[in-house]
Amino acid sequence: MTLKIETFSLGPLQTNCYLVIEETGARGFVVDPGMGPKRLLDRIATLGLTIEAIVLTHAHFDHMGGVDEARKALKCPVYLHDLEADWLTDAKKNGSTRWPDVTGPLTTEPAEYALADGQKLTLIGHEFDVLHTPGHSPGSVSLVSGEHLISGDVLFRQSVGRTDLPGGRERDLYDSIRGKLYQLDPNTRVYPGHGPQTTIGFEMANNPYVPA
């Protein structure tokens, strides 16, 4: 069984939002609906998809900025790690008060469901392993299904997530990458929170920040 994953670069920080679709093309779920999700919502409407969930890899404003609009339009629940449970309702914690030249304060209702390390999340007829991968933020998670990894802002192509924001910790980030992401099959395709796709094997061989 295969998944189709479409990418939408949303908002002023060009955040990668992912639309994950099951093989029959009837159901899907959304990962990280960033600011200004109209193109995403239009695409979902065009495809006639039933959306089962919105999953947040973490709750920084550029990843959760479109949650309010998307949740109302799609009528589906939101999943988020408990360590960032209150970030959706607190503009200071999600960082939207930090860059007034980028956005005004952003808030939305709390997530309906919590994510936890080791959880098996069943969506659109597929099972996704939830990996708690802190470092960029305390509640960052990555989703794995087969040879697909949605990594949020933990691992990028030849780069890593910043750790200088509140709740970030460099040592945790490298532990997450080496101890969890680099343990995956080298052929695993990485869908990051910003920038182009990559693979675990390529990053192990070429990422200058995290030598294997």
Automatic annotation (TrEMBL):
The beginning of the lineage is: Bacteria, Bacillati, Bacillota, Bacilli, Bacillales
CDD domains the record matches? metallo-hydrolase-like_MBL-fold (cd06262)
Protein's recorded name? Glyoxylase-like metal-dependent hydrolase (Beta-lactamase superfamily II)
Name the source's superkingdom: Bacteria
According to the UniProt entry, its GO molecular function terms are: hydrolase activity; metal ion binding
Concerning SUPFAM superfamilies, the annotation shows:
Metallo-hydrolase/oxidoreductase
Stated role: Counteracts the endogenous Pycsar antiviral defense system. Phosphodiesterase that enables metal-dependent hydrolysis of host cyclic nucleotide Pycsar defense signals such as cCMP and cUMP.
Q: What region holds the Metallo-beta-lactamase domain? A: 14-194
The source organism is Paenibacillus methanolicus
